[in-house]
Amino acid sequence: MTLVEILMTNLLSPVFLAFALGVFARLAHSELRFPKDLYTSLSIYLLFALGLKGGVELSHATFDSIAAPAAATLLLGCITPVTSYLVLRHLGRFGEADSAAIAAHYGSVSAVTFIAAQTFVSAMGDPAEGFMPTLLTLLESPGIHIALGIGALKVSGGRPIHETLHEVLTGRTMVLLVGGLVVGFLMGEKGWASVSPFFENGFKGALTLFLLEMGIVAAERLGDLRKVGPFLLAFGIGMPLVHGALGATLGSLAGLSVGGSTVLAAMAASASYIAAPPAARMNLPTANPTYYLTSSLAITFPFNVTLGIPIYYEMARMVHGI
Amino acid sequence: MPTETLKLVTIVAETVLTDQLLAALKRLGVSGYTVTEASGEGSRGRRVGEVPGDNCRLETLVTEDLATRILDLLAAQYFANYAVVAWTTDVQVVRGEKYRGAP
What we know:
Chain A is mainly alpha-helical.
């Protein structure tokens, strides 16, 4: 399959088309808006379903099969905030607070990008390993803390970092994902069979609906692109490609399949927009939120769901020698 | 029913600050408050959050002295870096002693 065919598969997927519709609706000044509670409900459903399914799969996984991928994930969690910070600070000439705040977003992970990548590789016939949601939980927190830690060393004025640790670890994403993994692990296949009609059959539909809203949210920020300048635009696309290549390579070295390496690459390439923004706002109050929100929501997220994920798939195939 | 004059302090701030502001108000001696969700746009543009435009609106009835201390605190710690708007209004309150309790 050529890269063009892979791209077309993605661009004609329900997930991407719904995202594009959301962008169009916003640009056309449609009155379409999701009620905030629906947005929250859909994200709870998606994250918990992801955790449950991952937990059930984890109950089948051996320690040996997951140890190396977990180590690769943690390594990525330590590398990506630092590379992001250095590039922003030294190439982009951003201030210390702005560099650290943006790096916190790129060091952490977007769960929706993860789900989109997982859905994509399944559609390509290369499903990722079942324990991937476990890896997702490992990547959520370190990036934020390393980047905000760098920020705390360089800039004063924020709140103590341990308050952020508590906030991120007890945030909605972590409770639903980690909690879902534990529940899924304990209930096993038998328990899963009883809830899967709700959590599995509705999953892709809910994801499609969620991406429609993400299209609206991302397009709302498009106007801010003019404010952030060309460097951040290039960063929002270039940094994910570098991190994606790193993720695909490390995933392959850790023994993940093509699908698993693609998803790990998408995780490394993605930028958080749920956990990281409030953490950055509270710890680095002098950083400009327009920079980190626009780059993660209006540049990197759309790039990843449009071109990024198929490219990471191609990268994963290359490192696997396919 | 007799009324007395107190200050209604209204603070509109980005939602991310809600818990921190409430803790600060309590430390200053505020005994009660109301929080509502608010949305809007100001000089700092839209707010941080998954859904843009999220603000919280905090309202509390306090003595004039406490109102001044609240505004001083906001000025010292929040106005420089965060989107926070605050104002006071003279209001006629029944059972005014309820709002004078805390030190």
